[in-house]
Amino acid sequence: MIPVAVESLDAPPLIAILRGLKPDEAVEIGEAIVAAGFRCLEVPLNSPEPLESIRRLRQALDGRALVGAGTVLDVAAVRQVADAGGQLVISPNTDVDVIRETKRLGLLSLPGFFTPSEAFAALHAGADALKLFPAEVATPKGLKALRAVLPGSARVFVVGGVQPDTIELWRLCGASGFGIGSAIFKPGDSPTLVSRRAIEFIAATR
């Protein structure tokens, strides 16, 4: 397997978190988000039949967007995501075994962190980027303080409570990118509604 390039996360630096997505709606929702300008999609593993949604999204969007899983908590789940065609492994926590298995399989690793110790442990294990979670608690000032000690090259994605009108403040405090969940998609939302919300986030990053 050819490793996924970390630069794929940068243009635009947005990940759509599709918690609660069902396989039968996955492609239609995914197409709407990609048409709006997103290039990274995450299906959390606590969604209904998440591996099937990942499989369908990867087949439909291959070459146009990266598709992966969120809430990946153990090594077995990493392997299941890889078998389903996933390209990203995103977690709410820092688990070095999950990170190392993700990299062994050639996928992108975005573990969650909240403290400097977790951040450095994740980077040492090979993480491609860091997920500051929950960002609502960390605050932009908290990120700015963390940035003072993290390597300048470290990508930090902010996840939790981000809105289009808060993106600029987060960027000024050191955010590299953003994971957007219910502000883009909630179960039952139509592709039209999801597209409109996604477009607002794309505009906010320009």
Helix and strand content put the structural class at: alpha/beta
- Oligomer class: single chain
Gap between N and C termini: 33 Å
Q: Tell me what portion of residues adopts beta-strand conformation.
A: 15-25%
Round the Cα radius of gyration to an integer and report it.
16 Å
The level of helicity is 40-55%
What does this molecule look like?
It is a single chain. By secondary structure, this protein is of the alpha/beta class. The chain has eight helices and nine strands. A nine-stranded parallel sheet has the order 5-4-3-2-1-9-8-7-6. α1 crosses α2. The longest helix is centred in the N-terminal third of the chain and has 14 residues, at 23-36.
Write the layout of secondary structure elements.
Layout: E1 14-17, H1 23-36, E2 40-44, H2 50-61, E3 66-70, H3 75-83, E4 88-90, H4 96-104, E5 108-110, E6 112-113, H5 116-125, E7 130-132, H6 135-147, E8 156-159, H7 167-172, E9 177-180, H8 191-204
Parallel strand pairs: 1-2, 1-9, 2-3, 3-4, 4-5, 6-7, 7-8, 8-9
Helix pairs in contact: 1-2, 1-8, 3-4
Name its key features.
9 strands; single chain; 206 residues; 8 helices; 9-stranded parallel β-sheet; 42% helix; alpha/beta
Concise overview:
With 206 residues, this protein is α/β, with parallel strands linked by helices. The protein contains 8 helices and 9 strands.
